[in-house]
Task: structure prediction
Amino acid sequence: MTEQEKRIKLAEAQGLTGWEEARCLPDYFANLNAVHELEKLLTPIQQALFVAKLSQILSPSVFPQSFRLIHATAAQRAEALGLTLKLW
Result:
């Protein structure tokens, strides 16, 4: 699945409809504000699954896990959201 197809799936999960062109879609993979708006819609159970998926995506590091989660990129968060919501 391309990033563009993933953006469409995430927008639909957020309830966004009526867009006609790709440039009208939120860029969840580059914009932390856009991905954060989608994160706010997660249920508590989905939040726990999201953290688990995001943890899997983040590579091992010398930094503590909590630090890596807080500083995850928009792309990492968008990917974890798609997996959490079973969009891909």
About this structure: Residues 6 and 82 are 8 Å apart (CA to CA). The two ends are 8 Å apart (CA to CA). The chain is about 55% helix and 0% strand. Residues 3-84 form one domain.
